[in-house]
Amino acid sequence: MHKHFSWLTAIIIATVAMFALVFGFDSHNNNASAASSNGNKTLIVYFSMSGTTKQAAQQIQHYTSADIVRLQRATPYPKGYDNYARVADRERRHNIHPAIKHNLPNLDQYSTVMVGFPTWWQQPPMVIHSLFDAYNFQGKTIIPFTTSMSTPMKASMPTMRRLARADGATIKNGFRYDDNNAQLRKFLQRNGLMNNN
Fold first, then answer.
1. How many other CB atoms are found less than 10 A from the CB of residue 77?
2. CA-CA distance, 42 to 114, in Å (whole number)?
């Protein structure tokens, strides 16, 4: 009777231990999976004056389901192309980084940040410099996109690489959006950014 009890006890203990190991392992994996999903989102930050870059950003958001936020100068540029172009050119020539509104969400939840802007004088507007001044992109992957009648993305890449690397971020080659959504989808697919819907 005593031996039978010991044998039965050993089986019960072994069974409980096995269940604890299996379910404990699954629970650990679930926790690890949940942790890995944190900080793995994509954010689209865009600056737009005429609305063209806004349209590009919204199209990217449609394909990626990423969060999106508009980058704004603290004091808006004056209305009218000639007026804001004059102010923007002065910023460029004197390396002025204008103050911006601090309206970005907590960046800890994002691993990838897409930064969109119109190309001005073969480079990003100075508010993009202000963006990197104001926020820490260390450890993020930066993917730029631009809108321009003819200037290719590669014209802005030296500046974007400099800004990203100074912040400790990784940067990928960007994309010039010219209303070609087929090319945009291919670009997003290459970078693993398309949603699954």
1. 18
2. 7
